[in-house]
TrEMBL record:
Active-site residues, record numbering mapped to chain: H190
Segments forming a coiled coil: none
One GO CC term, this protein: cytoplasm
Protein name per its UniProtKB record: Galactose-1-phosphate uridylyltransferase
Known catalytic reactions: alpha-D-galactose 1-phosphate + UDP-alpha-D-glucose = alpha-D-glucose 1-phosphate + UDP-alpha-D-galactose
Positions of Zn(2+) binding: C76, C79, H137, H188
InterPro entries: GalP_UDPtransf1, GalP_UDPtransf1_His-AS, GalP_Utransf_C, GalP_Utransf_N, HIT-like_sf
Pathway assigned to this chain's UniProt record: Carbohydrate metabolism; galactose metabolism
Organism ancestry: Bacteria, Bacillati, Actinomycetota, Actinomycetes, Mycobacteriales
Gene3D superfamilies the record matches: HIT-like (3.30.428.10)
Length: 363
């Protein structure tokens, strides 16, 4: 079992944003003063508009047009900045760090959302954070030592607990985009954490389906799907005492793997120490298999589906969905008209063949 230091070292950036250092045992974070000439941040920088044709909120965040775009390695804002003049992380070194996004889609706090009568925008309250997995600019999550990866999981868990308890936040979403093919503009290994003021459309649909399943069968949808995948076995990639990874029966993406705990929990906060350790191991295992699929690193998206312990979200089952748009060594899957306009996915590969390939790439 990994030894974890859970209390982060806290600091402030020049414009008042929060900065949190998570350190491995025996390491001590030593932030320096952020001396950049940043103007105090406006607590409200974006807006929400309600799309009545779909019943969904859309975030309008025009300030993101000015965000940092593919800087040279020696100007990376996520590398340590010991002078306090060059980086979002003013420190000589760090293990894992979390800070408020300088160009957030959501910011500030507020009350529950109310759908306006007309075309009135409403403040896009919420929280957007950046999490840097390592100070190593050229590394990746898959290359982290197990103890270091476990520290990232602990940082996710800490931020989930903090944000899920914040008034006005309905959903906490930890995620990673890896690879320029996905649209990443900073190559330093990092992810993001969003605190949404509403349930995202995908989550709302999944909970609706889970509610209907409960009415019809008297059981949890996700638990039943997991049991059926395990019983079938053809799409299971790896299974341990506490976790199962599999390619879902109706996979949308060319490479898609879901990781489920073998018992129903709502979020990372609900996992015990042994489960957190094993989750770290199977998560690393799948990412390492991804990187063995082709001659270069696999571009991917990682999405941690978490739910609040509330009546509205009680059927939610914590799991991770890992997805890649690479459909072969030389081709990408683009979300064209059918997927983007109609949300009707077309897959070029069978889930069973992808699962078999990933099993072959195992340790």
């Amino acid at each position: 079992m990994f030894e974890i230091v859970t209390a982060p070292t806290r600091a402030k950036l020049a414009d008042g944003r929060d900065l949190l250092f998570f350190s491995l045992p025996g390491h001590t974070a030593e932030p320096v003063a952020d001396r950049r000439p940043l103007t105090p941040r406006d607590p409200q920088q974006s807006e929400l508009r309600f799309d009545r044709t779909t019943g969904q909120w859309v975030i309008i965040a025009a300030l993101r047009q000015d965000r940092t775009y593919k800087p040279p390695p020696d100007q990376c804002p996520l590398c340590p900045g010991p002078t306090g003049l060059t980086s979002e992380v003013p420190a000589r070194d760090y293990d894992v760090v979390v800070f408020e996004n300088r160009f957030p889609s959501l910011s500030g706090t507020g009350k529950s959302l109310v759908v306006p009568d007309g075309f009135e925008p409403v403040p896009a309250h919420g929280r957007c954070e950046v999490i840097c997995f390592s100070a190593d600019h050229t590394g990746s999550f898959a290359e982290l030592e197990a103890a270091h990866a476990r520290l990232v999981v602990e940082a996710w868990r800490h931020r989930t607990a903090d944000l899920i308890a914040t008034p006005g936040i309905e959903q906490v979403f930890c995620f990673e985009n890896r690879g320029e093919e996905i649209g990443v503009t900073l190559t330093h290994p990092h992810g993001q954490i969003y605190g949404y003021p509403y349930l995202t459309p995908r989550t709302a649909v999944m909970l609706q389906q889970a509610g209907e399943h409960r009415k019809q069968h008297g059981s949890n949808l996700f638990a039943d799907l997991l049991a059926r995948e395990v019983a079938d076995g053809s799409r299971v990639v790896a299974r341990t005492e506490l976790f199962t990874s599999f390619v879902p029966f109706a996979a949308r993406w060319p490479v898609e793997v879901h990781i489920y705990p073998n018992r129903l929990v709502h979020n990372l906060i609900d996992l015990d120490a042994a489960e957190l350790d094993e989750f770290t191991q199977i998560y690393l295992d799948i990412l390492q298999r991804f990187d063995r699929m082709y001659s270069g690193p696999l571009p991917y998206m990682s999405a941690l589906h978490q739910y609040a312990d509330t009546e509205a979200q009680k059927e939610g089952y914590f799991h991770v969905e890992l997805m890649s748009i690479r459909r072969s060594a030389v081709a990408l899957k683009y979300l064209a008209a059918s997927e983007s306009a109609m949300d009707a996915f077309i897959s070029d590969v069978t889930p069973e063949s992808v699962a078999e390939r990933l099993r072959e790439l195992g340790p």
